[in-house]
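Page 37, continued from 36.
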């Protein structure tokens, strides 16, 4: 079952049209989804030492909690003073830099073993010594009650393959915003106490 597109803006599976095979328009692409602190979602990937994440985002609150993390540890933590990456466990293999300084700036970064890179300028922000560890048990989640804002896109690589390719969408059937994974053709709404908001710049 392929991903059906309509004018590059709206798309959905064949089931959205009763399985008739035509292009669906249930999920409408938008620029971003946003959490106000109570909305979050699972990214459905268990970290290992091959993990690489590309994320385009804007912070609304940056309290140094867990912008991306698991139930077991904080992974990518953002504050307007110091942003850090714990690669392999909370407080483990930590690298940090002061580059997220505004709640109005869109940042586009790559997080890997063991570095943070600015994708807009193609420059390494900070780099450490690569580490080795086995797959962790907890799955990655997006947003916490102290680290939240807007997300435009997320791509996740593991073992050298793209396992998730999330874009921001509106489910026009339920009027709920969420992420749509183009790899698995799966819609991911908020699992928190509030829905995501979203829209276009």
């Amino acid at each position: 079952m392929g991903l059906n597109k309509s004018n590059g803006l709206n798309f959905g599976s064949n089931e959205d049209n009763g399985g008739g095979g035509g292009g669906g328009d249930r999920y409408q692409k938008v620029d971003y989804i946003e959490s106000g602190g109570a909305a979050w979602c699972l990214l459905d990937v268990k970290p290992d030492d091959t993990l690489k994440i590309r994320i385009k985002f804007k912070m609304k609150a940056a309290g140094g909690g867990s912008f991306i993390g698991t139930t077991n540890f904080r992974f990518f933590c953002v504050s307007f003073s110091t942003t850090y990456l714990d690669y392999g466990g909370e407080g483990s293999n930590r690298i940090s830099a002061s580059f997220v300084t505004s709640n109005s700036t869109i940042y586009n970064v790559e997080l890997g073993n063991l570095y943070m890179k600015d994708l807009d300028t193609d420059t390494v922000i900070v780099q450490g010594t690569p580490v080795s560890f086995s797959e962790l048990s907890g799955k990655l989640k997006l947003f916490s009650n102290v680290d939240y804002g807007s997300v435009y896109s997320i791509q996740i690589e593991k073992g050298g393959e793209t396992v998730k390719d999330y874009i921001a969408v509106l489910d026009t059937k339920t009027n709920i915003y969420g992420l749509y994974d183009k790899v698995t053709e799966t819609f991911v709404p908020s699992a928190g106490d509030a829905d995501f908001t979203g829209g276009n710049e």
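Residues 1-9, 17-23 have pLDDT under 50 and may be disordered. Flag for discussion at group meeting. Residues 1-30 form one domain.
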